Please model this.
Amino acid sequence: MGEPLAGLDGIDWAVLDHAYGSAEDVPDLLRALSSSDEDEREAALGELFTTVFHQGSRYGASAAAVPFLLGLASHPGTPERTWPLYLAAALAIGYDEAHLPSGVDIATWREEAARLRETGDRDHFDFAWTLRSVEAELAAYDAVRAGLPTVRALFGDDDAGVRAAAAYTAGWFPEEAAATLPALEALLEAEQDPVVIAHALVAAGLLEGRALLPRFREHLAAAEPLPRWAAAIALARLGAADAPVIAELAASSASPPEGEAAFLEGDLRLYSALTLAALDGAPPEAVDAVLDGLSRTSGEASFPMAEAALRLTFRTPALPLPRFAALTPAQQRTVRTIAELPPESWQWGNLLEILRAWGLPTDHDECRRYAGLA
Model:
């Protein structure tokens, strides 16, 4: 096994940038990920997320850091090897919520970047900043794509957490599906850990692994809750959302299975609801389940669930807002469920922005009055 940070000092980090200017501090932060001191490792990881992945943005140093992150993830001497792997995935795609439930549309991403390069005003500050951002994002994505052989090799790692993180990472690269899907199939053939199985199933669905449809069906009918949920997610992604799939997603929208998952920071209820909202003509029981799930949320967890419920029942914003009596029963229940969310949800501007975009009252009392609530 080679040295994971070989070549680190051969890069002129001072001329690369991150969120706070020169990236000359990045080498020491990468080295600290191998420290025997847990506090030092955690502090370094936090600093890397703050600098080369500041609020989802990527910079010149982001792509340069990727080979070393993948090297650390694959080196048995690195403590907490999932950390650099998840950071590499984040550098590739940003926040995964931007790509779910459909997966990365890399063709459109590349087309938009090419259009920006060809048509923009390079002398305009805003354009120059936007172009730099787009170029940095794609460079980081392609750096992880180039390292996918290393990621796929981790499908056979002894650490289940590393196998799950590797499957999660590999699912965002449809251009590499021809190499990744057979590796995921081999992983699923041998895997016993339900968390790893779930990550591999979702990743295979994101990569349109139609050859694995029988395996998805097998897990959908099995007793293990987390892989069953993941199989339903994958089948819906592939356009195979029949009654058993919808029933599983509906149940998970109301009461998600226990178990760790990296997708959407582990919010399986939200992933289920977004998947149902993306379907054409979800049945009433699916709508009921999503609204039941929304009613069980509070605070920040309410925001994306409310948007999923609105997308599922309204499809398009109600502009101008009709009389409450003119709404469908499902739309009425959606508005009532949102109006009855606790104050800790309504105190956030995030929820109000969603309601404003969908044409609903942004004042809590006004929304309750509109819904006919006391």
Notes: The chain has a mean pLDDT of 95. The longest strand covers residues 17-18.
